[in-house]
Design brief:
Length: 452
């Protein structure tokens, strides 16, 4: 039986997310991102397409590396302005029954005690459909906004993240026992104090001595997503992640990264099948290949290569405006996203220059889209699944909501006809839908703090 493909929509609470410049397209409605109806309509479309989830990206800071300042990003709306993604979820959850929500939250600027409550609250309000995309940040501008001088060193951020995760696991899994909530009106006892325990933690970065403020939510620990592909990032993913997001730079690189993460998880005693891999693509689909190519050419008229370069510069921590157009870009160790630097340098067969990067930025994003008829698109998706051992895709918008409606109306039926995509949702929480189990099991570190 063929592997069942998993799908997330990939979006952000801003005007221009990945395909930069598309917001100026006459049919695009991205500028309506401040309106709840915009997001509720998207959620309903995704549920109609049986998507597993909507993955909401986020950043803390402004892209201000390209050209030495934020002007290019501000002009193009390149993830600025950007609003809080967590506040969208309750409205979208109320309008749907099955769709999951993976929300990005930067733990570098959070405290575990209040953060754990926020995600317990979201898990309650979604009836167990919340996931957390764990990030540690990559922008000096964000560090300055939070009172620092610059970003904490790359690998040290992951050391801090490991401790942050431990505290959260203690709060989510170990503070309230199963059965602690009684709701006994006759005895006037809501919860049993004997089954509720203070979390005591004193580490290198965090100190906590408190009871978790929320009663146990359906999943307790949200489904854990992670996107770090650096060596330290892969180590972190092998320890914690249930879903990993990988760059689509090449099939060979993706296969190598996926295998490394799963090998690391297996070395820790985890079931490597319990780590799902996703690759991000934009999709331009038409009824025929020719129609899709025509649509791509229309979209290209609105793409912003400046916006794409501003985004990429900030992600890597390298000012691409400082390079001559045909000057080779070499590897530079930064405290930004090292895996993105590696993808165009040490892990690439192409010697990239700014001009060659711009050639790839077909509709204003770092990587070219999948383009074609539903049959051509599904051929490509199945090829990626078979050759990289990933499990699914994050589908990012180009023209909103047109591109996602096109995908649901054209690509989903083709996936279903090939027997590689579900025809109905299963019941249960997001974790049950993805993995068939309501709770994380040993030896995942979260389960180690569960009271039995």
């Amino acid at each position: 039986m063929p592997k069942q493909i998993r799908l997330n929509a990939f979006d952000m609470n801003c005007v221009s997310h990945i395909q930069h410049g598309m917001w100026v397209h006459p049919r695009d409605r991205s500028a309506e991102y401040t309106e709840l109806d915009h997001w509720v309509d998207l959620a309903k479309t995704l549920e109609r397409g049986l998507f597993d989830g909507l993955f909401l990206a986020d950043i803390i800071g402004v892209y201000d590396v390209f050209g030495g300042g934020p002007d290019a990003s501000i002009r193009g709306g390149i993830q600025i302005p950007v609003n809080d993604p967590t506040l969208l979820v309750p409205a979208m959850a109320h309008a749907t029954k099955h769709l999951g929500f993976g929300v990005t939250a930067n733990l570098t600027y959070e405290q575990p005690y209040t953060f754990a409550r926020r995600f317990s609250t979201l898990d309650h309000l979604t009836r167990g459909r919340i996931g957390w995309n764990i990030v540690t940040g990559y922008l000096d501008s964000g560090a300055r906004g939070m009172g620092g001088e610059r970003l904490i060193e790359h690998d040290n951020r992951y050391d801090i993240a490991d401790e942050f995760m431990e505290v959260c696991y203690k709060l989510w899994e170990g503070s309230w026992e199963d059965g602690a909530v009684l709701r006994d009106k006759s005895r006037r006892i809501y919860a049993d104090p004997a089954r509720i325990h203070a979390v005591r933690h004193e580490g290198a970065h965090y100190r906590v001595d408190a009871i978790h403020m929320s009663e146990p939510s359906p999943q307790r620990t949200p489904v854990l997503y992670q996107a770090g592909a650096s060596t330290r990032g892969r180590q972190f993913a092998s320890t914690h992640a249930e879903c990993v997001f990988l760059n689509n730079s090449s099939m060979a690189n993706t296969r190598e990264l996926m295998a490394d993460i799963r090998t690391g998880a297996a070395a820790l005693g985890r079931d490597s099948a319990g780590v799902l891999g996703f690759v991000q693509f934009a999709v331009v689909v038409g009824a025929t290949d020719a129609e899709a190519r025509d649509k791509l050419e229309e979209y290209r008229q609105y793409a912003s290569s400046e916006g794409a370069l501003a985004h990429m510069s900030a992600v890597m921590g390298i000012d691409l405006a400082a390079y001559a157009p045909d000057q080779p870009i070499g590897f530079v160790k930064t405290d930004g996203n090292n895996s993105q630097v590696e993808a165009i340098t040490t892990k690439s067969d192409t010697v990239f220059t700014v001009n060659k990067l711009v050639e790839r930025m077909v509709i204003g994003s770092r990587n070219p889209p999948l383009v074609g008829s539903p049959q051509t698109i599904v051929d490509a998706m199945v090829d990626w699944i078979e050759h990289t051992d990933i499990d699914g895709f994050n589908i990012s918008r180009s023209v909103a909501p047109e591109s996602m409606v096109d995908f649901v109306d054209l690509v989903i039926p083709e996936l279903q006809s090939r027997g590689v995509y579900k025809t109905e949702y299963t019941e249960g929480t997001l974790r049950e839908k993805l993995f068939g189990a309501p709770r994380l099991a040993r030896p995942h570190p979260a389960a180690g703090w569960r009271r039995t």
